[in-house]
Amino acid sequence: MRESLRRARATQGSFNAFVLIRDEAAMAAAREADAAVEEGRATGFLHGVPFAAKDLTPTAGDLTTLGSWSSGDVVPTESALYVRRLQATGAILMAKTTTPEFAHSSLTWSPRFGATRNPRDPSRTPGGSSGGSAVAVATGVVPFAEGSDMGGSVRIPASFCGVVGLKPSLGRIPMTILPSVFDDISHFGPLARTIDDAVAFLEATSGPSDEDIGSLPLTFEPGRTQDSSLAGKRFALSVDLGFYAVEPQVEAAIRRAAEAMRAAGAIVEEVALPWTRAVVDEWYEVWCVFMSAYFGDRLAGFRDRMDPSMVAIMERGFAKDATSYKRVELLRTAMWRDMARLFESYDALLCPTCAVTAPPVEKVDGDYFGEDASGRLIGLDMTCPFNFTPQCPALSVPVGVAADGLPVGLQIVGRRFADESVLAIGRGVERLGLG
């Protein structure tokens, strides 16, 4: 624990990954963990392991701000369920990590805590919205940290920082921190050094709970993640998902990974998806309604202290009519049918996690909604489509660096509830030694 806290302090000035570091509380818990071992009463398989939680997540006794001045100085009296489950296995919370305001952005900057920077290149963003958690893992502070993913907020920073990031199947880890238990795009998931670390996080945190009506009545089986063989497995590869303008250096890295998988015995076939940028445009409309519904009541009192992009999102959400909002489900239905047909022939879909490598830290989300000369979306992430098919797990695993020296993530999207299968495939890719 001392080394974890030392690294957090040593890196904070350069990368700004933490909103608070729990020096005294973490060391007290570590001393208690040592005493428990000596007395033969260790609590679980993560006994003494440090972890970090995102500043979106309530943790008992800790300032929890959601990256916003509008939260004041709220100190919750109870931790989120996944935190309690990790602690029940012996893990120790050592810090809270940065997030953009209300986790609204693919880049981690907030008016309250400023910019978080990428340890691979401090002039670049780590991505968002779980950017602080990704940095905590990438700098060796913790083996895993929590992220939340509504449009890619685990997978984007995983790709940009060269770590593992998983959006589990909807309900695999009970989502207990939103005002509504009926939201269907939000997931807790791990940022982790390795597939093993991600599996440990899921083993500790998965399982049904009445705190989340949508939590899955399924048992996560870590043993099923151990088969790392790619031989004979069938994969559909879509470099662009039908409509993204992917940077050539990113495409090259993804194709190298596909060739390495073929060399390991996998069957990788390129497929054409019939999707258009309407997927991203409609996801954005849903996102705007999400933010205006859950946090819009704060706008009147704090407009001048909010991120301007957050203000614009809320105002757009307020203007959305109910019929148009409901009709988004028709697009989602068509997407799922496309995926279901694909899974009749393939074990998983492969694509880039992001269409670009980590952007300069001063960039904003609005810089990534244009089109190139051929009408393709100049987007940042390629993750939000799979929040529209939320029961499908999606994993980002590092597959090396692009020509600019920055990490690239391969996104592996699996069948409904096939978290173990996706992690096993990720383990196979990890063992190729590309990342």
UniProtKB/TrEMBL annotation:
Domain Amidase: 2-423
Disordered: annotated span: 109-133
Domain of life: Bacteria
Cited InterPro entries: Amidase, Amidase_CS, Amidase_dom, AS_sf
Pfam family, one: Amidase
UniProt GO molecular function: catalytic activity
Record's function text: Hydrolyzes indole-3-acetamide (IAM) into indole-3-acetic acid (IAA).
Protein name as it appears in the record: Indoleacetamide hydrolase
Source organism of this protein record: Chenggangzhangella methanolivorans
